[in-house]
Each structure stands twice: as structure tokens, then as C-alpha cells.
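Subject: Sanity check before I submit

Could someone independently write out the C-alpha cells for this chain? I want to compare against mine line by line before I put it in a report. The sequence has 248 residues.
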Amino acid sequence: MSGKVKTILISQPKPATEKSPYYDLADKYSLTIDFRSFIHVEAVEAQEFRQQRVSILEHSAVIFTSRNAVDHFFRMCKEMRVTVPDSMKYFCISESTALYLQKYVVYRKRKIFHGQLRFAELIDSIKKHKQEKFLLPCSDLLKPSIPTLLEDNNITYSKAMMYRTVCSDLSDLSDVKYDMLVFFSPSGIESLYKNFPDFEQNSTKIAAFGPTTVKAVEDKGLTVNISAPNPKAPSMSMAIENHINGKG
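---
Independent answer below. Compare away.
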């Protein structure tokens, strides 16, 4: 085994079920894998939302890029006593996000469209409904590529910031050392330094998912030891396993 990785901290919430590739990794290689979300979402209150001067009912379709967006859209409607009409169309980033709508609407009675996971795929469905006025519930950290794609395709839409991403308090981890830290967003790196401004990598290996996360790690002068997705590993768990096996 290269690198002698025995302890790993995944900067995400603990999986909801025991069926996680990380648990399989832990069993297979006798690893200690802990989960801790470095960031969390906080609601934008209705009073603050009103200052954005966005009227929900002036829109005929909603674009959902995550389950958080779904939750906060319907929370905001409830807080503002807005009754969403049955005619509202929903465009979801993935099938799982679309199915999550069942928590709030009668699924079979609504017009719901979804992509495969990438926004560039969803835009094809959106383009077929250019006559609609779209609402985009989002956080303060909306990927810039999303509004760019909408604007490039002349889609009429309004951004509606309904929640924000904030750094979690990780002070209880101050004395905990891991052989590997795994990050999935630039916000995770920001949280690391907000909690531990004097962090030094030393022998700690860093795994980063996606090019923007890799860049955020490198911008801090740190070394990325594992990056995913890559040609040998589409998932982070596979990339970690390849590293442990000396294959990546």
C-alpha cells in the first residue's frame, strides 16, 4: 500500500444508508473513515428575500439545481403565503431531484422535466419551453456557468437567492489528525482555513473532486494528491482506492 493511508476525513455529511462505497473501502482496507460536513446551508428569511424584488408568481416555471433548492423554494412560498399554481412547470437537474419533488407536490399531476446531472443537459429541455418565465432558486454560491448558459440561450429567468452556504464550526477537530482530507467544493477549503488559519499540509494527503476544488486547494499553496473524476476513476471512492493500491 502506498502512502500508508489509515484514517480519512470526508468533508460531507455521513451517508444516510450503510450502502456507501466509502464503507466498502473502510472494510476492504481496514480504514477509519469519518464524515463531517465542512459547510452547511442557512435559510434566507422572507423579509430579506423581499428586498430582491422577485415575485414568485410572475414566473411560470422553476429550475431546481439541488434538493436544497427544492426545500427552500417551498419553504419560502410557505413563509410568504404564496400558493404555487398547479400549472407551474419544474425543470430539475437530475431524476433524483425531480423525484424529491414528491415531498411537496402530487408528482403525476405536474409538468416535470429533468436532466441527467449536468446543467448543460437540462438546458435542452429548457430551450424547448422558451416562452416560459423561469425562476432559479439558488444559494449565494451559484455556479457562474448556470446563468451564463441561460443567458447564452436567451432564456427569460430571475435569480432568487433563498439560502446561503456557510462554513461550519469545526473547532472540535482541532486535535484530530487524519492521513487524508477529502474535499468536494471550494467552500470546503474556505471552511478549513476559516476554522484552522494555520493549517499546514505536512504529510496529510488531500483529495479534491472537480476542477474548481482542485484550483481552490492549489491556490492555498497545498498539494493535491488525488483528483477525481479522472479517466481511471469517475468517483472519489474509486480514486481513493486506486491511490491506496498505488494505481493512481
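---
OP: Matches mine. For the report I'm noting this point. The mean pLDDT is 93.
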